[in-house]
Amino acid sequence: MTEVIFKRKIPCARKPVVDRLGFILPWGQGVVDQSKSLGLIKQRIQQAIDAGLCKRAYPKGGRYRENFFIYLHGRDAFVQIGALQPESQKGGIRVVLNPALHEPDDIEKFHSIMEQIVGRDYQALLKTPLINQIDFAIDVVRADLSDLLVSYNHAQRHTIFGKRSGAGKNIESYYFGSVSSDYQTVAYAKDVQLKDTAIKRLISMRQQEDSLKMNTIKQAKVEGPKIMRVEVRGKKMRGKKPWEIEAMPNRFSRFKFADLGGADSQLSTLLRTAFISMCRDRGVKAALESFKGSKSARKVRKFWKSRQAPWWKPALYWQQAYEALKLTGVFPDEAFERDG
Known about the structure:
alpha+beta, eleven-stranded antiparallel beta sheet, 13 strands, 31% helix, 26% strand, elongated, disordered N terminus
């Protein structure tokens, strides 16, 4: 009888997307008294609200006079206009978008409504935006965090979340960096998040039609492939020009993944379990340091190096991320031209 061997499917990374984008436009720069211009914009905002295109927003501790959402088919756009301190703020318009969640015509709709509100200067303003926040995300299909060791260079701290099931523990997320850091990097189980979102939506649908409830139940039960999402979250970019993003340090390159899937005969069960546990509890660097000088030092270091994931190609991903920013259509080509 011929033995059938099932090959493990290798994880595959999708192209990066821009998950979140926050920027300002230099509207009203150098004009201390913006009352006249802002008065006209207020009227246009109200007209857009009356037409069902926008709704008011009420952020806490805002630094702008007018705050509203523009309705889109995907995630709504958050817009603020009229700096409270125009002499010190870099721009009088602030926008937050989620391009990865937009439908094909959302950006065109957004620009059309913004031009109606801001006026004919809007297109010129888009040529000189300053980016204050940008998140790049990569989905790796068939990658299970419970079968990976994750390392991130230069991280002062890391946090791991998981759910215990029986004797094992399913890893659901790694967070590198503190809440107050300029950057935060995350690797988490995207498939788990999608199911959790569907379940929460189902709980909130008490008054919805049965057909909508059934669709949501199906979403929560779908048994698709494992998906790991890797995110680089630039939370405090301090006014980067779009073309400057390409030359920024590639934070995807700081990630290293050791793929634990498949057969392994390098380490005993006890040593393998101890090393993996230490990596997840204290970090890979600290775990390797702990074995230094012991009889097992060479074995665990060889194990870590031999398991480096061949599907992780950070140099390629960073270039693709920059291209993804261009392809969002948020900024015109002129915004990506270097000064001078």
